[in-house]
Specification:
eight-stranded parallel beta barrel, TIM Barrel, 305 residues, 12 helices, alpha/beta
Length: 305
Amino acid sequence: MNDQMTGIEILLEDETLRDGLQVESRIFSLEEKLAIYDLLAQAGIKRIQVGSFVHPKRVPQMADTDQFIREIIRRNPDGPLLSALILNGKGLERALDSGVKHVSMSVSVSNTHSQKNAGKSAPEALEAMTELIQQAAQAGLTVRAGLQCAFGCAYEGAIAEKDVLAAAEKLAHSGAAELNLADSTGMASPMSIQSLVCQVRDLVPDMSLSLHLHDTRGMGMANMYAGYRAGVKTFDVCTGGLGGCPFIRGAAGNVPTEDAVNMFSSVGASTGIDMVKLCAIVGILEKSLDKKLPGRMATVIRSSC
């Protein structure tokens, strides 16, 4: 390993409470979510995406996001950085009312997925989101702008890199502080990760870049390492490997937080996250959901005790 690649601080944004739970039919209560949040904070997670401001009929699990955020702020105002997902103007209004200061605002570069997810074509959604990000930034929110299906679409197949780059450049000039590339369908490869990340970094060199990776085809960890080698230092993860988009057929979970912690530790990078505490959360989630989760390190930790 090159010495320049060791000792790097990696930021893992845990999205268990948003992406992780949104596809689960078993609805978690506010107190259950607060308990999971507390455990994630105690494990050393520095940024936690706790929900999305979407219509409760479309994603019932997120119906209490407003109340959840207010309660977190009331109980633990100096805790990890809170984040939440915004997809439209109503969501922005709710975010401002909730008190959250950091938000993710994303659109799909796939027309088909955009229609299913936002009810608009990709160009229409991009135009609307650009204006919305400007409003959010002017209102004092720190915005992470995201591009869904940046590495391929389950409905359309490959997405042209030039289309992703054009959308990335537009979002970069909207007032966002960070740009997130999402492999929403898990169709990326290490080569496509390296190619697109390098091109985006050349296009917007002063902008922070992050990756949101799904493990649909078992490539999540390899793609995360490729992103790391290409210079990305911020990654989205879900404890236990939960997650998936309700509007993408066959979408699997995110890269497990605990497996990412182990991988980065093995290459000399630092996440500041306690593996044992993290794996205890996996056990709680498996019991609550009555199923085995796909992450590997929880099993390793249990077998070593």
